[in-house]
Amino acid sequence: xxxxxxxxxxxxxxxxxxxxxxxxxxxxxxxxxxxxxxxxxxxxxxxxxxxxxxxxxxxxxxxxxxxxxxxxxxxxxxxxxxxxxxxxxxxxxxxxxxxxxxxxxxxxxxxxxxxxxxxxxxxxxxxxxxxxxxxxxxxxxxxxxxxxxxxxxxxxxxxxxxxxxxxxxxxxxxxxxxxxxxxxxxxxxxxxxxxxx
Length: 197
Fold this sequence. Notes:
The protein contains 10 helices and no strands. By secondary structure, the chain is mostly helical. 72% of the residues lie in helices and 0% in strands. It is elongated, with a radius of gyration of 19 Å. It folds into 2 domains: 1-50, Arc Repressor Mutant, subunit A; 52-194, Tetracycline Repressor, domain 2, CATH 1.10.357.
């Protein structure tokens, strides 16, 4: 009797088996042979599931972003004020708990900028859109609770994008340790302007 393989689960398993290898060495410094050995499969099997190494990073980011979203959803429910919720959103860029995802996210951004593939672009667009809608809902809720001025929604796109911008800029210039202070300062200043007095 033939064994039925859940191809999607097998793909996830291979990617997850290689997570530490990629985190330690970076995608550009590993070979498909190392991936196969780490996952305990043959080199040909790697190519059954992934066209190249870059797709493994894409799969890992996909898996870990889903986990991050679920965790964030639960954490946001424990926060009272809109400002606390927005701060929680920005923790992705500096918290110790998200260190692995951030490292893979950097790899993903690098790959997307250097050699964009349609599935990566589509994934990033969907991910960004869903997080932005969620972000706007938090601000809208703050307006409805009379915490924020209605104009706060006009700042949503800039406020949302600034996290990525500070993260990328500080990562490039080697000032990751400044990300939390830079984001907190920006959020505090913006909320001074947006909060109802």
